Amino acid sequence: MTFTEIPVPHGDTHDLWINPQNKNLMIIGDDGGAQVSLNRGRTWSTYFNQPTAELYDVITDAAFPYRVYSAQQDNTTISVPSWSSSNTVHPFQDYAYASGCETGPVALDPKNPEVIWGGCYGGAINRWDTRTDERRNVVAYPELQLGQAAKDLQYRFQWVAPILVSRHDANVVYHGAQYVLRTRDGGTTWERISPDLTTQTKAHLEASGGPINNDITGVEIFNTVFALAEDRAYASVLWAGTDDGRVHVTRDAGRT
User: What strands lie across the sheet with 55-60, from one edge to the other?
Assistant: First the structure.
């Protein structure tokens, strides 16, 4: 048996359909949408002819026109204007990278969106100052999360671990592991401001996958802080929600 490699437009293909009456006609579905081949895979239609994206989160800034920021599965983060004067079908000149990678999330101060925090795998964050183009990767603790059992990790970060820039002080940034973490110096140092807020269920902290190999994406990490929200009026009030069903609130900036 022999195989021939067929190049496809996108790198993460999920589905393939072949017309049973005409095997030259094929359709693939992937993280870029869907593409059609009329000649058994020699050429494919473009994925730029459809407004397709898998978005994990959406935030906006307070500019005019305001911009929308999100993380796209397999297609990096993105920033787009809420409206554009570009008289084109594909106004790519208005699109922009938004820091981090496909997982995100994207976080910023809505009033001063020049500094963008973008998440990536295993709790890594890319801090990008768009004014100076300074880019710095920061992480609370240097460890490789992929393929590890959650019980062996110093910090359990979910695939889309939440990042929150304080609306009251843009120098204060929160990050969610099993703890709530806080930095005041651009990510150089981090402090825990909470205990483990999850159920710490032992069965959920074992390695996922097997028996040949473990899951190695980071999506399988459980018992984590999955959402963070700050009170609009009081900087000392912060909520944290976990992926195992708990909601916590602090009214004194994390002391209790």
Answer: 55-60, 67-72, 77-81
